Amino acid sequence: MKKLIQNKVDKKTIANFPRVLFDGRIVVVVSESEAERAVDFLLTQPVLGFDTETRPSFKKGVHHKCSLLQVSTADCCFLFRLNHIGLCAAIKRLLSDETVTKVGLAWRNDALGLHQLGEFQMGEFVDLQDMARQIGIEDQSLAKLYANVFGQRISKREQLTNWERDILDEHQKRYAATDAWACVKLYHEIKRMLEQNDYQLVIVSDNTTKNNEETVS
Predict the structure, then answer these.
(1) What are phi and psi of 4, to 5 degrees?
(2) Burial class, 207, CB count within 10 angstroms (exposed 0-12 / middle 13-18 / buried 19+)
């Protein structure tokens, strides 16, 4: 039996899914020397998931620069604290690399934020939204895409916390790592589904999704 996916998934459905959280090793990188060692290791891996975080602004006209770059393997995630080390040479080397498969979601937006920290040559990235479109998925946020493909819920509770605080708490670290790690998981599964033609798309009407969204609003 082929794997069932939907073109759209609603909040009510996702709320009932079990929560998923990265449970691997997390390494916080706060110096250029640590970044060099981290990048040396990461560039030996076959697939890397990428994401960024920026301190939220609650004042009109006030914007903050990208604070954190998360890069994950299947079982280990590095959190590069850009507000401490900036876009150092090691990170530029990682971003410009063309040998490792690098995966993000709506990565063009993250890249714009990183370019505000300094100039670098961007290597090739796989965007999960492009892959999702190939199998007919229209809801392409990370949380909805992961719920659709795996039937699990990624919590976004920590998204609006202060990513520039001196020490990130455990909840922030797990949240940040989960987003990057989820990109690796989604890449492998969607790639498998495409290569094996192992999926069946279920079309959900706009009215059904809208009614369910209003129920939980």
Answers:
(1) -90, 130
(2) exposed
User: How far is the C-alpha of 150 from the C-alpha of 16, rounded, in Å?
Assistant: 13
Q: Using CB atoms within 10 A of its CB, is residue 4 exposed (0-12), middle (13-18) or buried (19+)?
A: exposed
* Predicted confidence (pLDDT) per residue in 137-175, tens digit: 999 999 999 999 999 999 988 877 899 999 999 999 999
Q: Report the distance separating Cα 170 and Cα 178, nearest Å.
A: 12
Q: Are 20 and 189 in contact (CB under 8 A)?
A: no
Amino acid code (one letter) for 36: E
The answer to whether the CB of 173 falls within 8 A of the CB of 65 is no
- pLDDT for the residue 156: 83
Is the C-alpha dihedral spanning 106, 107, 113, 119 positive or negative? Answer: negative
| Token pair 């891996």: residue | 45
Distance from C-alpha of 26 to C-alpha of 181, rounded to nearest angstrom: 11
Distances (CA, A) of 33 to 52, 71, 73, 90, 96: 21, 17, 20, 9, 19
> Beta 101-104 vs 126-127: how paired, if at all?
parallel
> Whose CA is closest to 186, among 123, 121, 111, 126?
126
Q: Rounded to an integer, what distance in angstroms lies between the CA atom of residue 26 and that of residue 49?
A: 14
Dihedral sign, Cα of residue 28, residue 32, residue 34, residue 38: positive
